[in-house]
Amino acid sequence: MKPSTRMPSLRALRAFQVAGRNLSFKEAADELYLSASAVSHQVRNLESFLGIDLFVRKTRALEFTEAGQKYFKFLDGMFARLEAETHQLWAEYGRRIIRLCVPPFFASELILPRLLALQSLMPDTDIRLMTQPSLMKVHPSDADLSILLGTGDWPELAIYPLFSRRIMTACSPGFKKKSGLSSFEDLDGQTLIVHENRPHSWVNWAKALDIKPPRSGKILRFDSMSAVVQAAAQGLGVAIVSWPLSENWFKSGALVRALDDEVQTDEIFYLAHRPEEHEREEIAEVIDWVINEFQVNG
What we know:
By secondary structure, this protein is of the alpha/beta class. 41% of the residues lie in helices and 23% in strands.
C-alpha cells in the first residue's frame, strides 16, 4: 500500500514537540498558552494521523514510546533549526511585520493618533493596520492581533480586556440649543441617527434606562460609527455614541451630551491573538503597549 503524502498539522507537531520536551501536557500548555486538554487533544490527533502511540500516559507523567522518542528527536531539531533560520532571515533580509486588525472607528479615534508613538517604540517593525466591520467578533486568520468587541467568549484565543463599551446620546451644540433638549421626552419628534449594524440601539438604550423609546420624527441610517458621529456633529440629529471612543469629539466641542444619560453595556473591547503568537518578541511588545495605553483597571 502506497503511504499517504498528507502531512500532519504544524500545530499538532508543535504540541507534541513541546509536550515531549517537558514530558507534561500541563507544562506544555503553560508554554503554548493553551489548556492541557487542548495540548492532549492535538497530540491525540497526531497519534491518530500516524496510527502510532507516541506517549505512554501515566497518572502524573508522560513517557515516550520507542517511536515517540525517535520522532521527538527529529522534530525537536527541526523546530530549533526552523526558529534559527527564521531569525536569521529577519536579520539579513527583512523587517518584522505585525498585522493589527481593529474596528474602523477604534482605529481612527484611538490607534491612529498613537501610531507614531508605537512606531517610535518599534522602529524595526512595520505595523500593518487593517480594519473590519465595527461589530467584528471573530479574530481574522490573516491578523496577528485584533481588537474584538464582545463578552469574552473566545476559548481558542488569548484575550485581554481593555475597557467596557458605554453609550450616551450626543448632538452638536447648535442642535441642542435649537431643539431645547433637556429631558428624555424632548427626544420625541427629533431626528434620530442610527447605525445600520445596531438597528435596535434606541430601543435597547431606552430599556437600559427603564424609559419609553423615543418616537422619532425622522431616522437617518449610516453604515459606520464614523458616519454616525459626523452626522451628529453636523447638526443632523441625535445619535447614540460609544464612550470613550468618541471622547475627542466632545473635547473638541463638535459634540455635546444631548441628555444626562450614560449606559454601561455588557460589551467589552478585548485585545486578542492566537496563543502561539505570544512567542514572537515583537508581538509581546505590542501587547504590552496596547494594554498600557488602553486597559482600564477595575
